[in-house]
From TrEMBL:
It is an enzyme of class 2 (transferase). Catalyzes the conversion of GlcNAc-PP-undecaprenol into ManNAc-GlcNAc-PP-undecaprenol, the first committed lipid intermediate in the de novo synthesis of teichoic acid. Belongs to the glycosyltransferase 26 family. TagA/TarA subfamily. Signal peptide: none annotated. HAMAP family: TagA_TarA. This is N-acetylglucosaminyldiphosphoundecaprenol N-acetyl-beta-D-mannosaminyltransferase. Keywords: Cell wall biogenesis/degradation, Glycosyltransferase, Teichoic acid biosynthesis, Transferase. It comes from the Bacteria. Its EC number is 2.4.1.187. NCBIfam families: wecG_tagA_cpsF. It catalyses: UDP-N-acetyl-alpha-D-mannosamine + N-acetyl-alpha-D-glucosaminyl-di-trans,octa-cis-undecaprenyl diphosphate = N-acetyl-beta-D-mannosaminyl-(1->4)-N-acetyl-alpha-D-glucosaminyl di-trans,octa-cis-undecaprenyl diphosphate + UDP + H(+). Pathway: Cell wall biogenesis; teichoic acid biosynthesis.
Length: 238
Protein backbone atom coordinates (compact mmCIF):
# COMPACT_ATOMS: atom_id res chain seq x y z
CA UNK A 1 0.00 0.00 0.00
CA UNK A 2 1.45 3.35 -1.05
CA UNK A 3 2.06 6.01 1.57
CA UNK A 4 0.02 9.18 1.48
CA UNK A 5 1.52 12.65 1.39
CA UNK A 6 0.32 15.62 3.45
CA UNK A 7 2.20 18.88 2.89
CA UNK A 8 5.27 16.86 1.96
CA UNK A 9 5.01 14.50 4.95
CA UNK A 10 4.52 10.75 4.43
CA UNK A 11 1.80 8.88 6.33
CA UNK A 12 1.28 5.10 6.26
CA UNK A 13 -2.37 4.08 5.65
CA UNK A 14 -1.94 0.85 7.61
CA UNK A 15 -4.13 -0.45 10.44
CA UNK A 16 -2.65 -1.87 13.66
CA UNK A 17 -3.02 -5.43 12.37
CA UNK A 18 -1.44 -4.63 9.00
CA UNK A 19 1.56 -3.06 10.69
CA UNK A 20 2.02 -6.06 12.99
CA UNK A 21 1.78 -8.45 10.02
CA UNK A 22 4.34 -6.42 8.09
CA UNK A 23 6.66 -6.15 11.11
CA UNK A 24 6.56 -9.93 11.51
CA UNK A 25 7.71 -10.39 7.91
CA UNK A 26 10.47 -7.80 8.24
CA UNK A 27 11.78 -9.37 11.46
CA UNK A 28 11.90 -12.76 9.73
CA UNK A 29 13.93 -11.13 6.96
CA UNK A 30 16.31 -9.56 9.49
CA UNK A 31 15.27 -6.00 8.63
CA UNK A 32 15.14 -3.13 11.10
CA UNK A 33 11.98 -1.00 11.24
CA UNK A 34 11.08 2.33 12.81
CA UNK A 35 7.70 3.65 13.92
CA UNK A 36 6.87 7.34 14.30
CA UNK A 37 3.52 8.93 15.16
CA UNK A 38 2.30 11.69 12.86
CA UNK A 39 -0.35 14.24 13.82
CA UNK A 40 -1.32 17.67 12.44
CA UNK A 41 0.94 19.48 14.91
CA UNK A 42 3.93 17.44 13.76
CA UNK A 43 3.10 18.03 10.08
CA UNK A 44 2.96 21.79 10.68
CA UNK A 45 6.29 21.60 12.53
CA UNK A 46 7.79 19.60 9.66
CA UNK A 47 6.84 22.44 7.32
CA UNK A 48 9.09 24.76 9.33
CA UNK A 49 11.83 22.30 10.25
CA UNK A 50 13.45 20.23 7.47
CA UNK A 51 15.03 17.92 10.06
CA UNK A 52 11.64 16.93 11.50
CA UNK A 53 10.32 16.26 7.99
CA UNK A 54 13.38 14.16 7.21
CA UNK A 55 13.03 12.11 10.40
CA UNK A 56 9.37 11.41 9.65
CA UNK A 57 9.79 10.57 5.99
CA UNK A 58 12.72 8.20 6.48
CA UNK A 59 10.77 6.11 9.00
CA UNK A 60 9.37 2.70 8.04
CA UNK A 61 5.90 3.38 9.45
CA UNK A 62 4.43 6.87 9.89
CA UNK A 63 1.30 6.09 11.89
CA UNK A 64 -1.72 8.45 11.64
CA UNK A 65 -1.98 9.52 15.28
CA UNK A 66 -4.74 12.10 15.34
CA UNK A 67 -8.26 12.63 14.05
CA UNK A 68 -6.90 15.39 11.81
CA UNK A 69 -5.05 12.80 9.73
CA UNK A 70 -8.26 10.83 9.21
CA UNK A 71 -10.13 13.95 8.11
CA UNK A 72 -7.29 14.97 5.79
CA UNK A 73 -7.27 11.51 4.18
CA UNK A 74 -11.02 11.71 3.57
CA UNK A 75 -10.61 15.16 2.02
CA UNK A 76 -7.98 13.77 -0.34
CA UNK A 77 -9.89 10.50 -0.92
CA UNK A 78 -7.08 8.57 0.69
CA UNK A 79 -6.96 5.12 2.30
CA UNK A 80 -6.43 5.90 5.98
CA UNK A 81 -9.30 4.13 7.74
CA UNK A 82 -8.46 4.44 11.41
CA UNK A 83 -6.29 6.29 13.90
CA UNK A 84 -3.18 4.42 14.95
CA UNK A 85 -2.06 6.09 18.15
CA UNK A 86 1.47 5.90 19.46
CA UNK A 87 0.50 4.58 22.87
CA UNK A 88 -1.80 1.89 21.46
CA UNK A 89 0.72 0.92 18.78
CA UNK A 90 3.23 0.35 21.57
CA UNK A 91 0.68 -1.83 23.34
CA UNK A 92 0.06 -3.90 20.21
CA UNK A 93 3.79 -4.34 19.64
CA UNK A 94 4.26 -5.47 23.23
CA UNK A 95 1.53 -8.08 22.82
CA UNK A 96 3.14 -9.20 19.57
CA UNK A 97 6.54 -9.46 21.30
CA UNK A 98 5.04 -11.55 24.10
CA UNK A 99 3.32 -13.91 21.65
CA UNK A 100 6.43 -14.34 19.50
CA UNK A 101 8.90 -14.63 22.38
CA UNK A 102 10.79 -11.41 21.60
CA UNK A 103 12.42 -9.45 24.41
CA UNK A 104 11.77 -5.70 24.69
CA UNK A 105 13.75 -2.80 26.14
CA UNK A 106 12.45 0.50 27.56
CA UNK A 107 14.57 3.66 27.45
CA UNK A 108 13.44 7.06 28.66
CA UNK A 109 11.39 8.97 31.25
CA UNK A 110 12.22 9.14 34.96
CA UNK A 111 13.50 6.04 36.77
CA UNK A 112 10.34 5.62 38.82
CA UNK A 113 8.10 6.06 35.79
CA UNK A 114 9.85 3.61 33.47
CA UNK A 115 10.25 1.05 36.27
CA UNK A 116 6.56 1.25 37.20
CA UNK A 117 5.53 1.04 33.53
CA UNK A 118 7.66 -2.10 33.19
CA UNK A 119 6.12 -3.72 36.27
CA UNK A 120 2.53 -2.91 35.29
CA UNK A 121 2.97 -4.05 31.71
CA UNK A 122 4.57 -7.33 32.78
CA UNK A 123 1.61 -7.92 35.09
CA UNK A 124 -0.88 -7.05 32.34
CA UNK A 125 0.58 -8.89 29.32
CA UNK A 126 1.17 -12.64 29.75
CA UNK A 127 4.68 -13.82 28.80
CA UNK A 128 5.97 -10.29 28.20
CA UNK A 129 9.74 -10.27 28.67
CA UNK A 130 11.13 -6.81 29.42
CA UNK A 131 14.80 -7.66 28.91
CA UNK A 132 15.96 -4.35 30.35
CA UNK A 133 15.20 -0.70 30.94
CA UNK A 134 16.99 2.58 31.54
CA UNK A 135 15.78 6.04 32.49
CA UNK A 136 16.16 8.96 30.12
CA UNK A 137 18.75 10.54 32.38
CA UNK A 138 21.58 8.07 31.79
CA UNK A 139 24.80 9.87 30.87
CA UNK A 140 26.99 7.08 29.49
CA UNK A 141 25.52 6.40 26.06
CA UNK A 142 28.12 3.78 25.16
CA UNK A 143 27.22 1.80 28.27
CA UNK A 144 23.52 2.15 27.39
CA UNK A 145 24.06 0.78 23.88
CA UNK A 146 26.06 -2.10 25.35
CA UNK A 147 23.29 -2.81 27.86
CA UNK A 148 20.65 -2.92 25.11
CA UNK A 149 22.81 -5.22 22.99
CA UNK A 150 23.46 -7.55 25.92
CA UNK A 151 19.73 -7.73 26.62
CA UNK A 152 19.17 -9.24 23.14
CA UNK A 153 15.91 -7.26 22.97
CA UNK A 154 14.26 -7.29 19.54
CA UNK A 155 12.01 -4.27 20.19
CA UNK A 156 13.13 -0.95 21.68
CA UNK A 157 10.81 1.80 22.91
CA UNK A 158 12.42 5.22 23.33
CA UNK A 159 10.72 7.99 25.32
CA UNK A 160 12.82 11.15 25.05
CA UNK A 161 10.31 13.48 23.40
CA UNK A 162 10.22 14.37 19.73
CA UNK A 163 12.42 14.90 17.75
CA UNK A 164 15.11 13.95 20.28
CA UNK A 165 13.97 10.32 20.44
CA UNK A 166 13.94 9.99 16.65
CA UNK A 167 17.41 11.52 16.42
CA UNK A 168 18.65 9.06 19.05
CA UNK A 169 17.14 6.14 17.15
CA UNK A 170 18.68 7.22 13.85
CA UNK A 171 22.11 7.65 15.42
CA UNK A 172 22.09 4.35 17.30
CA UNK A 173 20.28 1.94 14.95
CA UNK A 174 23.53 0.77 13.31
CA UNK A 175 24.99 0.02 16.75
CA UNK A 176 22.00 -2.13 17.79
CA UNK A 177 21.85 -5.06 15.34
CA UNK A 178 19.71 -7.22 17.64
CA UNK A 179 16.93 -4.62 17.74
CA UNK A 180 14.53 -5.03 14.83
CA UNK A 181 11.78 -2.56 15.82
CA UNK A 182 12.34 0.94 17.17
CA UNK A 183 9.49 3.17 18.29
CA UNK A 184 9.67 6.69 19.70
CA UNK A 185 6.89 6.68 22.27
CA UNK A 186 6.90 10.18 23.80
CA UNK A 187 4.85 10.12 27.01
CA UNK A 188 3.65 6.51 26.71
CA UNK A 189 5.62 5.36 29.78
CA UNK A 190 3.75 8.00 31.78
CA UNK A 191 0.47 6.49 30.60
CA UNK A 192 1.43 2.86 31.21
CA UNK A 193 2.86 3.69 34.64
CA UNK A 194 -0.43 5.35 35.62
CA UNK A 195 1.18 8.75 36.14
CA UNK A 196 -0.89 10.25 33.32
CA UNK A 197 -4.54 9.32 32.75
CA UNK A 198 -5.75 8.81 29.19
CA UNK A 199 -8.94 10.39 27.98
CA UNK A 200 -12.08 8.33 28.76
CA UNK A 201 -13.06 5.70 26.17
CA UNK A 202 -15.83 7.93 24.75
CA UNK A 203 -13.34 10.64 23.74
CA UNK A 204 -10.88 8.10 22.32
CA UNK A 205 -13.58 6.33 20.30
CA UNK A 206 -14.59 9.52 18.48
CA UNK A 207 -11.09 10.96 18.13
CA UNK A 208 -11.75 13.68 20.68
CA UNK A 209 -8.76 13.17 22.96
CA UNK A 210 -7.55 16.62 21.93
CA UNK A 211 -10.78 18.12 23.29
CA UNK A 212 -10.44 16.25 26.57
CA UNK A 213 -6.85 17.44 27.00
CA UNK A 214 -7.87 20.97 26.12
CA UNK A 215 -10.59 20.94 28.78
CA UNK A 216 -8.05 19.66 31.29
CA UNK A 217 -5.34 22.08 30.19
CA UNK A 218 -6.77 25.24 28.55
CA UNK A 219 -3.23 26.54 28.02
CA UNK A 220 -2.88 23.89 25.25
CA UNK A 221 -5.05 26.07 22.99
CA UNK A 222 -2.00 27.32 21.05
CA UNK A 223 -0.93 23.77 20.27
CA UNK A 224 -4.47 22.75 19.35
CA UNK A 225 -4.63 25.52 16.75
CA UNK A 226 -2.39 23.31 14.62
CA UNK A 227 -5.46 21.22 13.69
CA UNK A 228 -7.52 23.92 11.91
CA UNK A 229 -4.32 25.37 10.41
CA UNK A 230 -3.40 21.93 9.06
CA UNK A 231 -6.86 21.22 7.60
CA UNK A 232 -6.96 24.65 5.95
CA UNK A 233 -3.63 23.96 4.29
CA UNK A 234 -4.90 20.57 3.13
CA UNK A 235 -7.99 22.17 1.59
CA UNK A 236 -5.92 24.83 -0.15
CA UNK A 237 -3.53 22.21 -1.51
CA UNK A 238 -6.25 19.68 -2.38
Amino acid sequence: MDKEQYLGVSVSPYTYDEIIDDVKVRIAEGLQSTVIAVNPEKVITAGRDPLVKELINESTYQIPDGIGMIIASKLKKGDIRERVTGVDMMGRLLEFAAQEGHGVFFYGAKEEVVRTAKEKLEAKIPNLHVAGYESGYVQDQEALVQKINESKAALLFVALGSPRQELWIRENMPKLPHVKVFQGVGGSFDVYSGKVKRAPAFYRKFGLEWLYRLMKEPKRIKRQMALPKFLLKILVNK
